[in-house]
Write a structure and sequence with these properties.
GO molecular function (chain A): 4 iron, 4 sulfur cluster binding; metal ion binding
Radius of gyration of chain B: 28 Å
Shape of chain B: elongated
Helix content of chain B: over 70%
Largest sheet of chain B: none
Helix content of chain A: 25-40%
Protein name (chain B): Ferric reductase like transmembrane component
Number of helices of chain A: 25
Organism (chain A): Glacieibacterium frigidum
Number of domains of chain B: 2
Number of strands of chain A: 43
Strand content of chain B: under 5%
Keywords (chain A): 4Fe-4S, Electron transport, Iron, Iron-sulfur, Metal-binding, Transport
Number of strands of chain B: 0
Order of helices and strands of chain B: HHHHHHHHHHHH
Number of helices of chain B: 12
Number of domains of chain A: 5
Strand content of chain A: 15-25%
Distance between the termini of chain B: 63 Å
Keywords (chain B): Membrane, Transmembrane, Transmembrane helix
Oligomer: heterodimer
Largest sheet of chain A: 7 strands, mixed
Structural class of chain A: alpha+beta
Radius of gyration of chain A: 30 Å
Shape of chain A: globular
Chain lengths: ~800, ~290
């Protein structure tokens, strides 16, 4: 007869450990099952000495295990101790292979064939999954390892790193970095290139190879591992390499399959979807609970609180209020209507269309990232041209959209239950119209991240948002007093397409009358002149293209190509033609827009005849800038190298106005025709850095700047995600002596970023966590970006692409 | 479209063209006014620093000099608020040039071997070195940019270190006499060097050039070259020669962009000292 428990907890991370400790405290018969030989593998695998942060700071910790920010070793040591003293029944080196049965009688099959019985199961296995293992002969040898803690540990060894992702490359470079360690490092890659890795890592790897510090074997895979050697299948046949250690970094398989095999349903097929859970963390299989990162809570404090809560629920304390109750309560105080938190959650969920399908747990999480506010009649919610990427839902009352920029009396109403602000969310551009409350109303403001999460987890919300966006985008683009009802057939014909960077949506000379509206991203228009493609203009999100052929009944006059991965809405040409025929005002507007575009084409072509070189330069500079990612930028720093004297005053100014750390590297970056794009943030429409920020610390500010707030936990995700390499991890240097004492007495390092040596010598405490730093466009400083203010020759300029990729560039090329 | 182009154009003006040559215009008006005052006011017995016009011009000149000196401070104080260092530079250049007219008129062309003329001469040195600087700023950035391509100074030096490592490794199997030649390139070869070398980019007795000549001679002399080692060394030395050329041109251009400041700034301090002496002595002997 196998052992039987009241609760089996799988995974010993912060969530599982906290659950086990609380179960021990309540005296429940429990077991904590961990597949490795230590607690909390994810944090165990952090780099040695890494600072572990405790965010969000306003959340109180409710757990029988202590936790505070500190070094990885201190945190892990504390947990080991607490687990021991709490009397946690721990089962290490054990993997759960299958979970069968139902509430009250689950059977867990463990590695090694043993089974145990449990009344309830808590899944707290995180999202890290299992590393893919070596499957060749000898793959389970003890000198094959799947992580690398400290590269400095190994000396005088033949080490083979397998896998060509970032992890493998970083390990290989780390092992070969110090020649004093005398390691012979080889990296094995199954394919012919390093397509999965970051560009900087690949460059670093190639440089290390060129310097003779390591070797790279491409198109090779291991076939046999034996003591001292590894046999490798290469393009040119088999080779036997000396090998004392294998570091396999071949990615990992996410745990979703296993979880689904236990009968747990996910909220959608989306890759980022989470399991469907009740307010007590119970999954669709009764008796099986899911907590922690797997449930969608990646932060340690959340996880630990959930571990505590889930045990309380299992023990029968259903009335327990979640630990985030005070936060929500605070968010909701001051609103009219005296409702409890639960009542508010229901109120919002029922009354806002896109929230209808949310579970109470999702609703709680959603509200943590959102704000609920009451607006009085006539109050402005946001102004035209404000920056902002949040979405608003109307829970009570209604609002008015000022559709005309000049006359605030022309308005369109939006009723209760609907949403607004979605254009900013989708395109990342500034607000298109001013919105004010038509009556007293209650609005819920959804941050961009929460809105994206919502769209990923609730398909109905995604459909509703997409439909409304298309309608609104068309109304805003065409203007001219069009109403929603007029667009019926056009919206019905609409089809959202994703266009990859560089792909064409319209080809010059082809037949076609469809219209394309750019929902996100941007496009460039090119025309073949004298056999060469010449850049005509740049189309930001929110513009439309393709009407020329339709109105003229001609072939396409130019090619339209995606400058960056974009979403476009394809509209049927006939439906648009019909719309034009019944809306003479719209026809007139379209003709006006077309005339402006045609003037530009004519201008370019006329210049082409008179001085060809100018157009060539104009076109190639524009193409260069688009290649540099200016197409997705909203504001980019450019340096005119015909004026730059290399004084680096821009960098010094940047450092001196931001805690002594410069956020730009003037000299690095690409240059074309004396136009230099330095390594500095472009404030992308859809910032890549925001994609995976655990504390949600990256925001778009009121002036359109993308900035990182103080809740940064220093994980480095944003640094890795930025394709332009403009974010770096660093700690704030100590305060410098004043400029006056530098000028008169020579004290301190002078203007600009102090050297590492100086900072190290004058550091007050050794323990300062590294945080991500990037350009914030000097938000909050009157006078604008310091780099531009401090340029003595006028070489540094900041531009937005739709302004810069225009005739102005032609003037520059000419002069 | 036209207004937008004009707006962007303004962003793109260098310090000389700043705001439609605003400071050139202001400086010109100042000079013409000074000249008119000098010519129209009938000073007795003759125009000099002691007349009303002379005092006025002297005061304007002295204040201008003090204000122009403040650029050094303005550049380093990154304060908040709306200011443009480009506008300051523009004003510095044109008002600095206007000093030639204002102060020359202030002297009344009475020059001699005294502290007053010393101040005048120092000021002319400052202005002339400034003109040199303006010419350098106007012409050299293109050269700097074209030479460096997309390489940073750090990358250039790192590239040289990489070549040195490869040379070092490649020279291991050579005869002692031959590896001595390669050592010459590794040990007696600098990118920067002294003032002369920096400013001219000429490095006489450059170890790399000598190593290249020597190893090439070795090859021409038909010495045995097992494993083509010597040919590899020659190609590495040639690559290093090219890399050195780029790095030295970079250093040279940067040095030329800065060297005038080594006259301009010390001369400014000397000028302020002489100016103080000039003013004190004038009022002392009043």
């Amino acid at each position: 007869m196998s052992e039987s428990f009241r609760v089996a907890i799988i995974g010993s991370g912060p969530a599982g450990l906290s659950a086990a400790a609380h179960a021990a405290k309540l005296g429940l018969r429990h077991v904590l099952i961990e597949k490795t030989d230590h607690l909390s593998d994810t944090i165990f695998r952090y780099q040695r000495g890494k600072h572990v942060m405790a965010t969000p700071s306003q959340l109180v910790l409710r757990s029988d295990v202590a936790f505070d920010a500190g070094k990885r070793e201190a945190v892990l040591g504390r947990w080991d101790e607490d687990a021991r003293s709490a009397g946690v029944n721990l089962l290490l080196n054990t993997e759960v292979k299958a979970i069968a049965g139902a509430a009250g009688a689950f059977t867990l099959t463990l590695s090694g064939g043993k089974t145990i019985q449990a009344e309830t199961v808590v899944l707290a296995i995180g999202t890290q999954g299992n590393p893919n293992t070596m499957r060749c002969e000898g793959g389970n040898s003890p000198w094959v390892q799947y992580s690398l803690d400290d590269p400095a540990e190994y000396v005088d060894e033949h080490i083979i790193v397998i896998g060509a992702g970032d992890a493998g490359i970083e390990n290989a470079i780390g092992l070969a970095a110090d020649p004093e360690q005398r390691n012979t490092v080889t990296i094995l890659n199954r394919s012919a290139d390093f397509a999965r890795a970051k560009d900087a890592n690949v460059k670093g790897l190639n440089a290390a190879r060129d310097a003779g510090r390591l070797s790279i074997l491409l198109e090779s895979s291991p076939t046999k591992i034996e003591p001292g050697f590894m046999t490798v299948e290469t393009r040119d046949g088999e080779a036997r390499l000396p090998c004392n250690r294998v570091i396999a970094r071949m990615g990992s398989s996410p745990p979703r399959k296993f979880i689904e095999s236990c009968g747990v349903q996910f909220s959608s097929d989306d890759r980022e979807a989470f399991p469907t859970l009740s307010p007590t963390f119970e999954s669709t299989t009764p008796g099986l609970y899911v907590i922690g990162a797997l449930a969608g809570y990646p932060l340690i404090k959340h996880c630990m609180n959930q571990g505590y809560d889930v045990i309380e629920f299992i023990a029968g304390n259903i009335a327990l209020k979640p630990a985030d109750e005070p936060i929500l309560e605070k968010k909701l105080t001051g609103l009219p209507g005296r409702r409890s938190v639960a009542e508010w959650l229901d109120f919002l969920r029922e009354r806002v269309e896109i929230l209808n399908d949310l579970s109470p747990l999702q609703m709680r999480e959603f509200l943590l990232d959102s704000d609920v506010r009451a607006y009085a009649r006539g109050e402005v919610v946001f102004q035209r041209n404000d920056a902002g990427s949040s979405l608003f839902g109307i829970a009570a009352g209604s609002v008015l959209v000022e559709v005309s920029a000049t006359d605030p009396s022309i308005t369109v109403p939006i009723a209760q239950g609907s949403i607004f602000g979605e254009v900013g969310l989708i395109s990342g551009r500034r607000r298109g119209a001013t919105i004010r409350a038509a009556e007293d109303c209650i609005l819920v403001e959804v941050s961009r991240l929460a809105a994206l999460k919502l769209m990923a987890s609730v398909p109905a919300a995604k459909r509703a948002i997409n439909r409304i966006t298309t309608e609104r985008l068309l109304l805003q683009m065409f203007g001219s007093g069009l109403r929603k009802e007029d667009l019926g057939p056009l919206v019905a014909s609409a089809e959202v397409m994703t266009v990859r960077k560089g792909d064409c949506i319209i080809k010059e000379g082809e037949e076609g009358s469809d219209i394309f509206a750019i929902r996100s991203g941007s496009m460039v228009i090119e025309k073949l002149i004298g056999g060469k493609p010449v850049f005509l203009s740049y189309l930001p999100a929110g513009s439309y293209v393709g009407e020329m052929a339709l109105i003229d009944n001609s072939r396409r006059t130019a090619t339209v190509r995606a400058a960056i991965k974009s979403d476009v809405i394809k509209l049927d040409g006939n439906a648009f033609r019909w719309l034009l025929s019944v809306q003479p005002e719209l026809l007139a507007k379209a003709k006006r827009d077309m005339a402006a575009r045609r003037d530009l084409n004519g201008f370019i072509e006329s210049k082409k005849d008179s001085f060809g070189g100018v157009i060539d330069l104009y076109s190639s500079v524009a193409t260069f800038l688009v290649e540099q990612g200016v197409g997705e930028a909203t504001d980019v720093l450019l340096i005119d190298e015909t004026l730059c004297v290399g004084c680096d005053n821009c960098e010094k100014a940047c450092a001196d106005s931001h805690d002594g750390l410069s956020r730009l590297d003037r000299e690095a970056g690409r240059t074309y025709a004396h136009l230099h794009v330095p390594t500095s943030c472009r404030h992308c429409e859809h910032p890549h850095c925001m994609a995976d920020c655990p504390p949600n610390a990256i925001h778009r500010g009121p002036d359109g700047e993308v900035f990182i707030d103080d809740s940064c936990i220093g994980c480095g995700n944003c640094e890795r995600n930025c394709p332009y390499g403009v974010i770096r991890m660093d700690k704030v240097p100590p305060k410098k002596p004043s400029l006056l004492s530098w000028l008169t007495l020579g004290l301190g390092p002078g203007p600009g970023e102090p050297s590492k040596a100086w900072s190290y010598k004058h550091a007050k405490s050794a323990e300062a966590p590294k945080k991500a730093i990037k350009c914030d466009m000097c938000a909050g400083q009157s006078g604008g970006p310091a780099c531009v203010r401090a340029c003595p020759t006028g070489a540094a300029i900041r531009v937005s692409p739709e302004d810069f990729l225009s005739i102005a560039l032609l003037d520059r090329s000419g002069g | 479209m036209a207004s937008r182009a004009a707006n962007r154009g303004a962003l793109h003006e260098g310090f000389l063209r700043h705001n439609g040559f605003r400071w050139l215009k202001i400086a010109s008006v100042l000079c013409i006014t000074a000249l008119a005052a000098y010519l129209l006011v009938d000073a007795e017995p003759r125009p000099n620093g002691g007349t009303a016009v002379g005092y006025a011009l002297g005061t304007i000149g002295a204040l201008l000099i003090l204000w122009l000196t403040m650029l050094g401070l303005r550049k380093r104080v990154i304060s908040r608020g709306r200011y443009s260092l480009k506008a300051w530079t523009s004003a510095h250049v044109y008002l600095g040039l206007s000093l030639i007219t204002i102060v020359t008129l202030h002297t009344g062309f009475q020059l001699g071997w005294n502290v007053h003329t010393l101040a005048y001469a120092l000021m002319m040195i400052v202005v002339l070195s400034g003109i040199w600087g303006v010419i350098a700023y106007g012409t050299l950035p293109r050269t700097l940019s074209a030479n460096r391509g997309e390489a940073t100074q750090g990358q250039m030096l790192e590239g040289l270190r990489l070549l040195d490592r490869q040379l070092h490794d490649a020279a291991q199997p050579l005869l002692p006499r031959q590896s001595e030649m390669v050592r010459e390139s590794l040990e007696n070869c600098s990118v920067g060097g002294g003032l002369y070398a920096r400013l001219t980019g000429r490095h006489r007795r450059c170890g790399n050039a000598r190593a290249l000549t020597a190893v090439k001679a070795e090859l021409r002399a038909g010495r045995p070259d097992p494993g083509q080692r010597l040919s590899l060394i020659v190609s590495l030395l040639e690559r290093k020669e090219a890399a050195l050329g780029q790095a030295r041109r970079h250093i040279r251009t940067r040095a030329l962009l800065e060297v005038w400041l080594y006259i301009h700034v010390p001369a400014t301090f000397a000028l302020i000292a002489a100016l103080t002496a000039h003013i004190v002595s004038v009022f002392y002997y009043w």
